[in-house]
């Protein structure tokens, strides 16, 4: 499925670079998921819907239908082999560069970091909170969730995630993958050092997964 997504992005690319197509796709996917959690008439929902429509106007109807198909492919890929799929796609598209300074941690490194992490007893009654100040595609947190799953624990009930990144594309990537994996998470856009996520953070810069909002998709 991952290679099909990459081929589709390359197929759509022409007027826009694969990097821009990828960014627009994950942005639309994030909006589609997030807006399903808000009631009609919500000011934030309407704002993000306008953002979605602005992106959609850049593409043909067939391309937008392909965006939807690609989200389904991503869900299947995460179901079959949970990992930082979007980070892999981003790097295989050669979207990362020295100019942008974005290089996503290979997932096997994230798995190693998760394997050596220590914790006390975890249960749905005693969930742990995980913080990621530079989330990227969310690989580190996905690896931790999969470690818990491998230990026989339901990570969806045992961890609460707070993540942040300066780059909106990374926020959207992490948010989409956390949502599809059913993580209880909030992903905020901002400089963690200068403007760390806190209570009262602007709503338009915070993306809460359906599980965090108590919504079943």
Could you walk me through the main structural features you see in this protein, from its secondary elements to its overall organization?
The chain has 217 residues and is α/β, with parallel strands linked by helices. It contains 9 helices and 4 strands. It has a 4-stranded mixed beta sheet. Helix 2 (18-35) crosses helix 9 (168-181) and helix 6 (107-116) packs across helix 7 (139-150). The longest helix is centred in the N-terminal third of the chain and has 20 residues, at 61-80. It is globular.
What series of H and E elements makes up the topology?
HHHHHHEHHEHEE
Low-confidence stretches: none
| Mean pLDDT over the residues | 88
Distance between the termini: 22 Å
> Helical region count?
9
What is the tally of beta strands?
Answer: 4
- Percent of residues in beta strands: 5-15%
Shape: globular
Largest sheet: 4 strands, mixed
Structural class: alpha/beta
Across the major sheet, the strand order is: 1-2-3-4
> Helical percent range?
40-55%
Q: What is the alpha-carbon Rg in Å?
A: 17 Å
